[in-house]
């Protein structure tokens, strides 16, 4: 490794400059307001957790974890996601007080980046978790809230793609001979490598009819009338899965004015391996990357010895910034320049102005090296002197 | 209160931007598009323009270096791209690989001087594809030093820089002319249609129609 440069930061770490920070603050406050109205409570968890617990339970790949060692020699991780710590808190304490439980977070998560230097390794995530409810009502609440939240934040053009982890694995299992084959095919669907998927089928030792059925799943993408067709691919004791999705669709159709932003795609698979039921991804025009995703993850609670239903979503704030119109309402900023004799007078004036919710900077004039450049930054400049104060 | 509005790229759901690799693959892919029935300008290959419009189809072509096509698509400045599987394997970009266009067929192989073995002490492999080469030898459990070159890979064994090269082979003519022989085939290569994950969802109708039309032509072949 080359020598660390003076202004260099660790790989993937970023400063948020005042403008960007303001925008994030806007997202945070708007989202917070909206989410609290939906009956969710915000929560914070430690930045650092044990690798043994959160690190292993998290769906984030181990190579993306930031690891540290504490003074006892225990391996720690910077939290790579919020869902796992929330599952821990819910299982250990909060579910006993309130069940079902609705929790929300706005927090930094850390994932080490392997590729090109500039990609963020620390980013804010905004999300909800609804714990203690197995029903489709919970699933539709989560998806609907995600949609409403994006609208409240001002995201104009976005799409939600809904899949179902259990339907996909039932379908793959029904048509293959081993779990290795299921895993290989599922992995190709995660990458959406359809060329690889059909090549893999060619190389697998399967019946022709199995192959034909499997190839169909990659043709069924983006077709919302797939439910009835898909029933043929599932066994009798798996039909209830389709019922679930149909119910979810009905609930969402009831809630949404414009259903066209939603599409169902049973080939949708996530790299987050803990999803067990419906899962969804959010894509918005303006960013080349998915801005968020969510789903049902009942399985995760088994790691904390609980059997509860849980569903939720997370949105990446940095990606959200890309798709939002760069809108920033700025408060009026005033500069009060004082000299030696006018300090107390300037103080009185500043207080008075701050009370009318102006942003007032109080500055001793002599200390500013380039006074003209400094004045340019403010909307209004007032020079306070013993003789009187005047506006520039 | 001031409201600051910055210009935002307006993404029309009906416009498609396609990143195409310059050179031989471009010719073949363009011909495929025309045969599939897309109404494209007749002669664009000889122009030096980097952006070419096909207004009848509401398509915009970006002409890029083959290695850069997946970059454009991953970042979403192009919805679709045509890229060689070699480039995709080497770069591991976050793009959807939806269609094998079955053009520019070739493969990646190891080659070297005839009747030679790898040096026991310091086995060296020269390549334009360090990642593919590393993975190949890793899977075999051989420890080799990978030397990355940008072109004229065949030179490496001839002048003693490396024992083997990992390179793309189409007819084997270049190897033969330089007195090299092929040792192991690594992976077959052809051109693929890749799509940005967000475009794939946000412009799904348009992109699916585009793919269906291409598939239709490919099935005839």
How would you sum up this structure, described in words?
The complex is a heterodimer of chains A (392) and B (221). Chain A has 392 residues and is α/β, with parallel strands linked by helices. Chain A folds into two domains: 306 residues, 2-Layer Sandwich (BirA Bifunctional Protein, domain 2), CATH 3.30.930.10; 59 residues, Rossmann fold (3-Layer(aba) Sandwich), CATH 3.40.50.12590. Chain A is built from 13 helices and 16 strands. In chain A, the strands form three sheets. Chain A has an eight-stranded mixed β-sheet. Chain A has a four-stranded mixed β-sheet with strand order 14-13-15-16, covered by helices on one side. The mean pLDDT of chain A is 89. Chain B has 221 residues and is of the alpha/beta class. Chain B contains eight helices and twelve strands. In chain B, the strands form two sheets. Chain B has a six-stranded mixed β-sheet with strand order 3-4-2-5-12-6. A five-stranded mixed β-sheet of chain B has the order 9-8-10-7-11. In chain B, 39% of the residues are buried. The N terminus of chain B is likely disordered. Classes of the chains: A alpha/beta (392), B alpha/beta (221). Chains A and B meet through strand 7, helix 7, strand 9 and strand 12 of A and strand 1, strand 6, helix 7 and helix 8 of B. Strand 12 of chain A pairs antiparallel with strand 1 of chain B, so a sheet runs across the interface.
